[in-house]
Amino acid sequence: MRDTASDLSDAAHSDLSPPTRTRFVVLGVLCLLSGVLYLDRICISAALPSIKTDLKLSNTEASYFTMAFTLAYGLFEIPTGRWGDRIGGRRVLTRISLWWSAFTALTGACYGLWSLITVRFLFGAGEAGAFPNVARVLSRWFPDAERGRVQGVLLAASQAGGALAPFLAAVLIQNIGWRLTFVAFGGVGVVWAAGFWWWFRDDPATHPAVNAAEVAHIGRRATSGDVHTNIPWAAVVKNPSVWFLSIIMTFASFNSYIYFTWFPTILMEGRGVEKIEAGKMASMVLAFSAIGTFAGGMILDLVVAGGGMARRRLLGGCSFFAAAGLLSCALLSRDPWLAALFTALSCFMTQATLPLWWSCTIGISGKHVGALFGLMNSCGTVGALSSQYLIGAIADWLGAKGYTGREQWDPVFYINIGVLIAAGLLWSTFRFVLVEPLEHPEGETDADH
User: Fold this and answer.
1) Contact, 78 vs 374, CB < 8 A?
2) Dmax over Cα atoms in the chain, in whole Å?
3) Is the Cβ–Cβ distance between 387 and 225 less than 8 Å?
4) Please, which pLDDT band fits residue 222 given cuts at 50, 70 and 90?
5) Domain boundaries in the chain?
6) Per residue in 128-161, is it b (16+ CB within 10 Å) or e — as a string?
7) Backbone angles phi, psi at 347, to 5 degrees
8) pLDDT of residue 219 exceeding 60
9) What class does CATH assign to 20-221+235-436?
């Protein structure tokens, strides 16, 4: 184990071999994890109509077990992120992927509302630690110059898994039923966990496939063996960037969870679309989300290369304002496919800001990435819970008053347009402030961010 950056540099010069590219294999492995994560999470959206019918649940009752996942996800992000800071991403990601895969499969064994609430809560507790620990791995395996593209690719992979889920789940449900569909999806994560534990290492310098030149290219990074200091909570609470990023994630999650949970149901019951067709439309929306995250990562690298927070503010603000306008076009469209296309473009714009959010969050967190990323990401729970509950409750309330179709299901989108505009305003006024001072190379300052 090398102790200083100069040691790494000397080792690199003594090795005439070009840097290995094992870090990109790590990226591929994490992309698989992200895809499985969203596959397991979003398959519930396609199964929701069948579960409601089979278990005789109202829309409001259905919102309760979808909210159980979200609540657990929010509650456990900080402790599982801190867990990774202490013992390393390899151990934590292996354990939690096995955990959530088991409860994905057990969803198929539920026979009532309370069993669904319990299982989905425990499922959410497992998934909660994924992205905080993935963020930690990225911060230790990639240099700053590659972060934007890497985050874009990773988040695109997660959205790709989500895009596949509605259509694949709809086909499987039609052929083997919703219960066996969850069992099948749960098995995928078990295979990933076994391979990850065998191959991955927390510290690039200890991986047999990484040479000294690649270690030097990555640079000096904290590893799971470093001394972990207490989180400066007073500084966290006073930090304006933490507040802005947390609220932005709240608004972004309000938007996202409409499509993660309810969108196929809205298409079927609000616009009269058939199940397979609704699965295709929902998959299209999430596919555009995947493309948006990838494009956002590429754009972010160009923005960072240009320097300054002004360009980041412009990227975040304009993206959310455009998303609000496109969603308004969807509401004005009578044709379901045209409405789905405008919705997909809206999601493209919102997801294009996700690598930007990750970059700012990792950047201000310093050596407490796992815990503070978990803190800010968990604030999305408020937005996610709000949209999950409001959609079901408003639909039941309007249904009781005799409204049907679009009149019953469209009102939540008017609320969502306001949420997107608010997120755009926050990005437009964002400031980058570190939680605690970092040691910089000579000539580098916080202003570089």
Assistant:
1) yes
2) 78
3) no
4) very low
5) 20-221+235-436
6) bbbbbbbbbbbbbbbeeebbbbbbbbbbbbbbbb
7) -65, -35
8) yes
9) mainly alpha
